[in-house]
């Protein structure tokens, strides 16, 4: 344990709780300044290499370049400095190289062997005892080995090389750096053995085996390897190029998280350590083989280094001085140069250090002041440091200095800490869950957000609305939509008029959130207008504040606000209508599906089964003929009830069709005529008109005096003729004159009706015949027509009568069978009616448009706030612009104005405190993303500024690197001080409080800290990034509850997972932990990807930094380097540096081969977190992080067969291989399940549709699609019934790829196999939950079409064709703007372009011509013509007032 006397202890000036707060702030501040490294020196010190990676450049090697930089720092407004290859170089004579080589050849490892033997003996002694703290013991071992290598090898080589350099002119730069690099060189020599050393020690302590540790010591003392590494290191002393070294520095930055390249000005050398006095962040761009360097306005002073050196002066020389650096951060104003700012304190620093001599930092020639073993020079260097924590340290110093009990900030700090130590937080989880459970389906599916959200995300929003919520934890495994959640939260708070600050220690995470915010807003912006959205990003190189407040930007935003206001009433009306319509459609759908019960369906199928059992002959009829069977049954029923008429009208098919065509005319026939025809059934209509002549003849035969007395013969002739026409003889025709006269009119009436109904006149006789029978009802007519026009199948014709004549003679058995068939058909029709009643509204389109309308509300809110700021606070806007450029802190009053203008701010965790004042409750909500990587020491100042705090992260991914690398001994020493003060001043023996106080340790992330303080915690489970197969490793082995992958794989598994083995398995690689063969293969594949029309984004992930450096060097030196970056967005990572990243395609370069395999030092031995394994948790996290980055495809590039690997990496590779093989074993396209009676038939239906034919070549039909897995992802309790047959249809268009799921509900098989029926599918057909799941699935871009035997229609192919065409047409329309969005886009575009103008009176945006007024000087008025005319009309209508006379 490190003694407190060894530590840089800051005494407390307060007592009680304030004393504890002061001690805690000092502890956090000390950690942020030193990282608790074992050297106990400040962390900001110069080094050139870390292992083989460049981290520094000594500019004294490039005098011309240094002069250029001095010139830039002297300028008020410096332009970027351009650097090209070969422009700045340095070289030393060959004699120097020969001298260095001679020194390296003289290396002897005899003394090193002896010292390592002694260390090994100490380890053996320790192994026999119980070691309570393995980490501290291993730290001591590493320090001992480091000291041995430095003393016996490095110092000896330097002592030989140094005289050689002293004799050579021009080598001063190399000489002055040599002494300070001994630790750096030692670290390089031990780099490859760091992991094996810990593994060997672990085996000795835990497994009692010495062999591995002995092997490591032998490897460390290997003379050949030591000489190779020394030769490689000293090569840079002979020939250098600034451009090449800068490229190396940038390459290191790419794989080093939270790093920044700084220009160091002035240097202090003490005890071989080199501390920069001032360091300036550089913005570096690389394009077209040219590097551009630009210093930022912020200048950091190495205050901690000066404190350290002043302490050493006091301790060693009793020289007492005060640190003249009151601030850590200085800001260059627009009127100052960088040197102007530095000069304000530089000479004070020289005086404080008591050095003698003059130092001119504005000259490239070396100047130096020295005393007490301290040298201060004008050296300039470039270094890669961790991003500065100075602004957070300043916050802690403010807390330590200003701990006034009455200070509101201190009160807030105290309240938060006291609550954490003593209170049990109010949990709102049960309230949120209850609210969600009680939320009805329409409200779950239709909500006011610009984004689609899953249930967990909705619950997060609900928790933040709860007044009892202060702290929220969101666990977000890889790809579960953390940035999506943050975006939704930001939008909700903006709409509520609140403020939000979004923080992360990872720039990439903030970039994703910013892009997401802009992407959503951009959907309602006009594509033709280049907007700068008012989402304020602080600390970023190209901060967007200046662009936002430019006059052109504000004018565009004002036009947008103006048009929204003009259309606000219409917007509100349409918004309400759309919301109500969506909810009504969902309600109707739920009502319709819940009206269908499985009891009803089962009853139908039971009766159907009974029918087939009772009448086995029905088995001979194909299922496709069921509709014909039902038709015959219905026809038989009609025939049975209307035998005479059906027999008459359907004597043959044509007669029946004629009858059906005559039905409209029959209904128009007069009742008198109908009765006449019925009374004279034998009337010959073709001769009936002759009856008129016979009536005349009859009346003519009558004598005036004698009547018909003497006309008997004539009357007999007439009676005979009438009998021929009417079929009825009447001896006294004179008595029937009226009847005959009416009958004579019948043909004419019939012919007139035939003409009126466009029927053939030849049908007159049949018309008369059918008139006696009367017309059938519409239903009966439709039935007869269908029956007569149906071409019955052979199996039906063989079993049943298929004409009316046959039906008339049906035997009792067949009649009974058909009667039961008819009753069953009635029930089927009733079910069909219910299925047809299910609405087919376009949820995706309507929901998307509703999201657009919500976005419009949001955009108006943020636009209005920033335009008010720009117009009403112009002076403040200018002041704030200068503050942001200088990276200075906002004055509190100005920040209040800024907060109102920008409700959403985004900043880096290490940047925000530079700008934002330290005041409690500044923000309604502070979000910390990737919080598992943020120490509580880094997060506390942000927490103080918030009313609510939400942290998102994943503790199964990497934790905080700073705390992981901190010395456990030093941390325990400092934290012991904190706990001692706490016990003495606060807890007074309260064990509970003391236990809680341990969470203040810097080793705890802010997520860990909130475990005891949160009011709500939830895990996001829905994985959106990759396909299920890609995330399957993490889902199975890392997250026991499983991740719910929602991305549907609609392509072959080979396009998702691929293993590529190199050609030469026997090849021996020349560089350790580098595989040139794998690199060759990967770059060949990258060339192929570049040729694609739409290349994917690509990353290469490898376990080894050496392979990263090699791959980056290869990429940098390629002629297509820019294409790789721009087209493929190529990035190269280790497993340790890829967290937070994602790419379409991931290449894994595993490097290990049959000759060398160091993977077990990187990954765990077993596929689990092991406490017995060194860094077991970290190694397991590497697997989770590394294998969860892909979106479309994972490619495993390996140099030996998978089964030859060992440890956990073998299990991982085998897992993915098994997933690949399993997926390949599933039926591919065109294959169907032979056990599924309907799958082949549905597939044939789909293939027969004209929709599929039209889209041939662009469409895929994938059977046996596992829809149940995806619905289960939306709700783990869901059980997908086994009787359902699912197809995925994938249509590729020029714009995008659309996917739809076709689900056939095979009810007919459900009730035959009781093994398939369970509690999850028995009682109901669909529920509100099913509707919700499917709508959510649709909101993620997957349409769904349900078909079954009840709704597929009599022609399944035609039904499917219509439904598919409509469904995929909906896809194209789903992205269409809502009418209101289109209107506002067009109007805003017109206003910005000047084509439209807003009328002051009516507020409408109208063409400029509508304002033309030649009488005005400008030629245009403020009011439109319509308003002017209305005003004039109103004026003329108003009665004139009579002027009163005064007298």
Short descriptors:
1447 residues, alpha/beta, disordered N terminus
Strand content: 5-15%
* Count of alpha and pi helical runs: 60
- In one word, what is the shape? elongated
Q: What distance separates the N and C termini? A: 112 Å
Instruction: Characterize the largest beta sheet: strand count, sense, and whether it forms a barrel.
Output: 9 strands, antiparallel
Given as residue ranges, the uncertain stretches (5+ residues, pLDDT < 50) are 1-6, 1226-1230, 1310-1324, 1443-1447
Q: What's the count of strands?
A: 33
Secondary structure class reads alpha/beta
Gyration radius from CA atoms, angstroms? 45 Å
Structural write-up:
This protein has 1447 residues and is of the alpha/beta class. The chain is 52% helix and 13% strand. Strands 3, 4, 7, 8, 9, 10, 11, 12 and 13 form a 9-stranded antiparallel sheet that branches. The protein has a 7-stranded parallel sheet with strand order 16-17-15-18-19-14-20, sandwiched between helices. Strands 23-27-26-24-25 form a 5-stranded parallel sheet, sandwiched between helices. Helix 19 crosses helix 20. The radius of gyration is 45 Å and the shape is elongated. It starts with 15 loop residues before the first helix and ends in a 10-residue tail after the last helix. 42% of the residues are buried. The model is unreliable at 1-6, 1226-1230, 1310-1324 and 1443-1447 (pLDDT under 50).
């Amino acid at each position: 344990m490190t003694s407190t006397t060894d530590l840089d202890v800051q005494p407390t000036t307060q007592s009680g709780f304030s004393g504890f707060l002061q001690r805690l702030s000092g502890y956090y501040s000390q950690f942020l300044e030193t990282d608790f490294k074992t050297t106990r020196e400040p962390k900001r010190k110069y080094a050139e290499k870390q292992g083989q990676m460049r981290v520094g450049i000594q500019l004294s090697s490039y005098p011309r370049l240094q002069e250029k930089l001095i010139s830039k720092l002297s300028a008020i407004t410096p332009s970027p400095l351009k650097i090209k290859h070969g422009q700045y170089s340095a070289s030393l004579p060959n004699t120097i190289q020969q001298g260095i080589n001679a020194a390296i050849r003289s290396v002897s490892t005899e003394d090193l062997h002896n010292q390592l033997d002694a260390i090994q003996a100490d380890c053996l002694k320790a192994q026999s005892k119980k070691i309570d703290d393995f980490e501290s013991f291993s730290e001591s071992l590493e320090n001992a080995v480091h000291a041995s290598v430095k003393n016996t090898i490095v110092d000896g080589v330097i002592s030989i090389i140094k005289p050689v350099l002293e004799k050579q002119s021009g080598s001063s730069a190399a000489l002055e750096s040599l002494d300070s690099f001994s630790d750096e060189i030692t670290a390089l020599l031990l780099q490859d053995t760091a992991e094996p050393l810990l593994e060997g020690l672990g085996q000795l302590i835990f497994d009692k085996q010495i062999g591995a540790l002995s092997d490591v010591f032998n490897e460390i003392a290997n003379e050949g390897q030591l000489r190779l590494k020394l030769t490689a290191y000293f090569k840079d002393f002979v020939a250098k190029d600034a451009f090449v070294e800068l490229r190396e520095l940038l390459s290191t930055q790419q794989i080093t998280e939270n790093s920044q390249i700084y220009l160091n000005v002035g240097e202090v050398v003490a005890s071989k350590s080199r501390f920069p006095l001032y360091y300036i962040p550089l913005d570096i761009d690389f394009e077209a083989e040219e590097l551009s360097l630009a210093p930022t306005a912020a200048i950091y002073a190495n205050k901690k280094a000066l404190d350290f050196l002043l302490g050493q002066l006091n301790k060693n020389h009793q020289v007492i001085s005060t640190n003249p650096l009151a601030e850590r951060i200085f800001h260059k104003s627009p009127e100052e140069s960088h040197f102007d700012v530095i000069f304000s304190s530089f000479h004070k620093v020289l005086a404080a250090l008591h050095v003698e001599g003059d130092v001119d930092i504005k000259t490239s020639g070396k100047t130096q002041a020295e005393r007490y073993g301290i040298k201060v020079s004008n050296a300039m260097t470039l270094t890669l440091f961790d991003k500065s924590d100075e602004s957070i340290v300043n916050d802690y110093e403010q807390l330590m200095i200003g701990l006034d009990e009455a200070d509101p900030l201190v009160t807030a700090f105290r309240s938060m800490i006291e609550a954490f130590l003593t209170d049990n937080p109010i949990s709102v989880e049960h309230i949120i869950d209850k609210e969600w459970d009680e939320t009805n389906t329409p409200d779950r599916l239709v909500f006011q957000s610009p984004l689609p959200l899953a249930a967990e995300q909705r619950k997060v929003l609900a928790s933040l609305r709860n007044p009892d919520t202060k702290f929220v934890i969101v666990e977000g495994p890889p790809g579960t939509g953390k940035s999506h959640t943050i975006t939704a939260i930001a939008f909700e708070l903006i709409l509520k008029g609140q403020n939000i600050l979004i923080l992360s220690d990872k720039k990439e995470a903030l970039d994703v959130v910013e892009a997401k915010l802009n992407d959503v807003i951009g959907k309602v912006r006009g594509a033709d207008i280049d907007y700068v959205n008012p989402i304020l990003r602080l600390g970023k190189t190209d901060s967007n504040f200046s662009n936002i407040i430019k006059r052109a930007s504000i004018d565009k935003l004002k036009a947008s606000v103006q048009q929204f206001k003009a259309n606000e009433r219409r917007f509100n009306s349409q918004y309400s209508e759309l919301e109500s319509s969506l909810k009504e459609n969902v309600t109707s759908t739920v009502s319709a599906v819940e009206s269908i019960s499985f009891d009803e369906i089962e009853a139908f199928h039971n009766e159907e089964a009974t029918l087939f059992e009772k009448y086995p002959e029905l088995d001979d009829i194909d299922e496709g003929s069921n509709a014909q069977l039902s038709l015959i049954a219905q026809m038989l029923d009609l025939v049975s009830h209307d035998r005479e008429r059906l027999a008459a009208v359907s004597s043959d098919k044509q007669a029946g069709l004629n009858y059906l065509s005559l039905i409209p005319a029959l209904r128009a026939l007069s009742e008198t005529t109908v009765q006449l025809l019925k009374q004279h059934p034998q009337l010959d209509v073709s001769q009936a008109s002759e009856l008129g002549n016979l009536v005349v003849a009859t009346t003519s035969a009558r004598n005036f005096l004698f009547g018909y007395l003497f006309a008997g013969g004539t009357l007999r002739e007439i009676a005979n003729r009438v009998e021929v026409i009417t079929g009825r003889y009447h001896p006294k025709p004179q008595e029937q004159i009226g009847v005959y006269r009416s009958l004579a009119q019948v043909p004419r009436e019939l012919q007139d009706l035939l003409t009126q109904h466009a029927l053939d006149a030849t049908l007159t006789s049949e018309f008369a015949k059918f008139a006696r029978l009367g017309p059938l009802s519409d239903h009966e007519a439709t039935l007869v027509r269908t029956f007569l026009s149906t071409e019955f199948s052979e199996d039906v014709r063989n079993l049943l009568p298929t004409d009316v004549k046959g039906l008339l003679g049906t035997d009792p058995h067949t009649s009974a069978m058909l009667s039961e068939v008819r009753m069953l058909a009635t029930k089927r029709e009733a079910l069909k009616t219910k299925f047809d009643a299910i609405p087919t509204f376009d949820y995706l389109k309507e929901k998307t448009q509703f999201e657009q309308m919500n976005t419009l509300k949001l955009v108006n809110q943020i636009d209005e706030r920033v335009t008010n700021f720009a117009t009403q606070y112009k002076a403040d806007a200018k002041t704030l612009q200068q503050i942001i450029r200088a990276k200075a802190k906002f004055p509190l009053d100005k920040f209040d104005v800024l907060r109102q203008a920008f409700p959403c701010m985004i900043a880096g965790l290490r940047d925000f405190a530079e700008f934002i004042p330290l005041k409690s409750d500044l923000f309604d909500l502070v979000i910390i993303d990737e919080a598992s990587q943020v120490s509580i020491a880094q997060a506390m100042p942000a927490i103080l500024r918030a009313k609510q705090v939400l942290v998102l992260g994943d503790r199964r991914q990497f934790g905080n690197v700073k705390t992981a690398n901190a010395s456990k001994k030093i941390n325990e020493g400092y934290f012991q001080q904190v706990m001692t003060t706490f016990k003495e001043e606060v807890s007074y023996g309260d064990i509970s409080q003391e236990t809680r106080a341990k969470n203040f340790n810097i080793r705890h992330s802010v997520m860990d800290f909130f475990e005891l303080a949160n009011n709500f915690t939830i895990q996001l489970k829905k994985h959106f990034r990759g396909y299920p197969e890609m995330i399957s490793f993490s889902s199975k082995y890392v997250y026991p509850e499983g991740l719910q992958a929602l991305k549907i794989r609609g392509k072959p598994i080979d396009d998702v997972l691929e293993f590529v083995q190199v050609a030469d398995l026997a090849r021996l690689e020349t560089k350790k932990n580098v595989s040139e063969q794998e690199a060759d293969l990967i770059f060949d594949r990258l060339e192929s990807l570049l040729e694609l029309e739409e290349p994917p984004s690509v990353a290469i992930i490898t376990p080894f930094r050496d392979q990263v450096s090699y791959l980056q060097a290869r990429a940098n030196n390629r002629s297509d380097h820019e294409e790789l970056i721009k087209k493929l967005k190529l990035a190269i990572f280790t497993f340790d540096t890829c967290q937070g990243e994602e790419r379409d395609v991931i290449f894994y370069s595993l490097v290990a081969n049959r000759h060398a395999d160091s993977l077990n030092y990187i990954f765990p031995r077993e596929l689990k977190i092991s406490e017995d394994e060194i860094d077991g948790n970290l190694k397991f996290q590497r697997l989770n992080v590394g294998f969860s980055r892909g979106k479309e495809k994972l490619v495993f590039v390996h140099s030996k067969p998978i089964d030859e690997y060992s440890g956990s990496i073998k299990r991982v590779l085998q897992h993915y291989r098994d997933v690949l093989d399993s997926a390949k074993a599933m039926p591919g396209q065109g294959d169907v399940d032979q056990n599924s009676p309907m799958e082949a038939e549905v597939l044939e239906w789909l293939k027969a549709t004209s929709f599929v034919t039209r889209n041939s070549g662009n469409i895929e039909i994938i059977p046996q699609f596992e829809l149940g897995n995806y619905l289960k992802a939306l709700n783990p309790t869901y059980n997908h019934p086994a009787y359902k047959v699912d197809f995925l249809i994938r249509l590729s268009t020029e714009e995008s790829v659309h996917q739809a799921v076709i689900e056939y509900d095979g009810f007919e098989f459900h009730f035959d196999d009781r093994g398939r029926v369970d509690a999850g599918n028995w009682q109901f057909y669909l529920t509100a939950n099913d509707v919700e799941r499917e709508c959510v699935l649709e909101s993620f871009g997957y349409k769904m079409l349900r078909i079954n035997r009840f709704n597929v229609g009599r022609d399944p192919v035609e039904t499917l064709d219509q439904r598919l065409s409509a469904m995929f047409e909906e896809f194209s329309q789903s992205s269409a703007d809502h009418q209101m969005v289109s209107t506002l886009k067009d109007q805003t575009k017109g206003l910005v372009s000047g084509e439209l103008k807003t009328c002051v009176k009516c507020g409408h945006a109208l063409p400029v011509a509508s304002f033309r007024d030649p009488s005005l000087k400008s030629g245009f008025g403020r009011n439109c013509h319509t308003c002017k005319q209305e005003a004039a009309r109103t004026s003329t209508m108003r009665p004139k007032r009579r002027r009163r006379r005064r007298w």
